[in-house]
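Q: Hi! First time doing this. I have a protein sequence and I read that you can turn it into a structure. Is that right? Here it is:
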Amino acid sequence: MSTMSDPLTPMDIDHEPPSSPPTEITEAFPASNGLHDMKENEAPNPPPHKAHMSPPPEPPKPVVDCEACKVQGNKFFKLKQYDKAIQEYTKGLSAFQK
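A: Yes, that's right. Below is the predicted 3D structure, encoded as structure tokens:
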């Protein structure tokens, strides 16, 4: 350990006067990032909205065979199940009219 009585070496003495504190360099750093010119308190623009797309098309309804409805209705009629026969005949007629 050195004591206070040791002579000072050239390494211990500062020959340069103390420098002044560094000044702010504002020109070196632009205010914007180069992509958008914004003011400090201004919020960035929101991204554009996606275009509204139409809903997907509905799947096609199953095709009703009018002749098959008539055949099924005739079977119900022969079995004397008249309510079911009427339902089949009605289903066949509504498909035929479309």
